[in-house]
Structures are given as C-alpha cells and as structure tokens.
Amino acid sequence: MSISSKLEAKCARGRALLERACDAYEAGDLAAASQLFRKAARLGNPNAQVNLGNLYDAGEGVEVSLGSAVRYYRLAAKNGLPEAAYNLAVAYRNRGKNRWSQFWLRRASAMGDSDATVEIAAVEKEKA
C-alpha cells in the first residue's frame, strides 16, 4: 500500500468516525460521541478536533476542562479550521482571559473566520 493510499484510508476512517460521532451526539449519547470524536481527532480530523474541544469547553459527555478544550481547538486551528481559533477566543473570553481572547480572535480573522472579523471591528469601533 502506497503512502498516499494509507493517508487516504486514514482520512476516510476519520470521516466515518466523525459521522458516527455526530449521529451519537444528535441522539443524545454524549459518552459515545466523545469517544468517537476522540478517535477521529487522533486520526487528524480537524472537525472532530473542534467538536471535541466544544465538548470539553461545555462539559458535555466529559468533565469541563479548559486545558483539554484548548488542546483540541489548537490542533484544529493548526489543521486549518478557522472556527477552532474563534472558539478558542470565545473560551478565553468567557473565562476573563481577554489578552488570549484577542490573540485568537485576530488569528481566526486572519484564517478567514467572518465572526471573528466582525467582533474585532466592533471592538475597534467601541475604542474610537
């Protein structure tokens, strides 16, 4: 099996696990959803990484853990998902960590997240 074939298979497994995790979440089975998101996240699926970050941030199916939420949001942002950078900014803001929140808002905006761009503009307008 070639390297590209192995990579494609890994991506396909990650997508399949993500779909199963989303189904479990929608069915209210948060324990199964968190396990499936975790498996897909380990395979490098950024959507699973951001969803797992959301679970840790909100304490859905897992204990609330800013450290774990940050870990998965950062992985997803590193893998190119602007939503993850925005969610990280919101998580920091909700905990009063405004410098980190502003840092991640700027990062999310630079990655193309329109919500972050709007929020930055609103903050700048308030300062003026």
Task: Briefly summarize what is shown.
By secondary structure, the protein is an all-alpha fold.
* Share of helical residues: over 70%
Per DSSP, the total helix count is: 7
Helix and strand composition category: mainly alpha
Strand content: under 5%
Low-confidence stretches: none
Molecular shape: globular
Largest sheet: none
What CATH architecture label of the largest domain applies? Alpha Horseshoe
CATH class category label of the largest domain: Mainly Alpha
Under CATH, the topology of the largest domain is which?
Serine Threonine Protein Phosphatase 5, Tetratricopeptide repeat
Structural domains: how many: 2
Mean pLDDT: 93
Extended strand count: 0
The SSE order reads: HHHHHHH
- Cα separation of the termini: 60 Å
Gyration radius, rounded: 16 Å
Describe the structure.
The protein has 128 residues and is mainly α. It folds into two domains: 1-80, Alpha Horseshoe (Serine Threonine Protein Phosphatase 5, Tetratricopeptide repeat), CATH 1.25.40; 82-128, no CATH class. Helices cover 80% and strands 0% of the residues. It is built from seven helices and no strands. Helix 1 runs antiparallel to helix 2, helix 3 (46-58) packs antiparallel against helix 4 (66-78) and helix 6 (98-110) packs across helix 7. The chain is globular. The mean pLDDT is 93.
Main attributes?
globular; single chain; 7 helices; 2 domains; Serine Threonine Protein Phosphatase 5, Tetratricopeptide repeat; mainly alpha
